[in-house]
Amino acid sequence: MKGTIVKLIIATIKPFKLEEVREALTEAGVRGMMVTEIKGFGSQSGHTEIYRGAEYAVNFVPKVKLEIVVSAGMADQVVETITKTAKTGKIGDGKIFVLDVEQAIRVRTGETNEDAL
């Protein structure tokens, strides 16, 4: 395989933690990320709310999904930074997944893998 191995880190965090996590990752050397507003559930399993006098179930909780591609050597530091910064100690702090990336390509230049980051 040509180039250095890269990792995809997918993290779900509480929306109010996004800016703090982004700043910490930038300081750690992360040069880019994709951010998506999502809804999901895990241990929280949703909750009930009252709207116009009627109680209804909120089955999905708002979250933010971060997708970050970094060199394999940086992955542990990125995971540690997200864990430390996103943690509130309460249920619903999120999850982090680390996957191998088979190939990364910068469209503009054709650079591949770590060079494409």
Please sum up the structure shown.
By secondary structure, this protein is α+β, with helices and mostly antiparallel strands. Helices cover 21% and strands 37% of the residues.
Notes on the structure:
With 117 residues, the chain is an alpha+beta fold. It has one domain (6-116): Alpha-Beta Plaits. The protein has helices spanning 18-27, 72-86; strands at 6-13, 34-40, 47-51, 54-58, 61-71, 95-101. The strands form two sheets. A four-stranded antiparallel beta sheet has the order 2-5-1-6, with helices on one face. Strand 3 (47-51) and strand 4 (54-58) form a beta hairpin. Helix 1 runs antiparallel to helix 2. The mean pLDDT is 90.
What descriptors fit this protein?
alpha+beta, Alpha-Beta Plaits, 21% helix
CATH class: Alpha Beta
Give a quick account of the main beta sheet: strands, pairing sense, barrel closure: 4 strands, antiparallel
What gap, in angstroms, lies between the N and C termini? 16 Å
Q: Pick out the low-confidence regions.
A: none
Average of per-residue pLDDT values: 90
According to DSSP, the number of beta strands is: 6
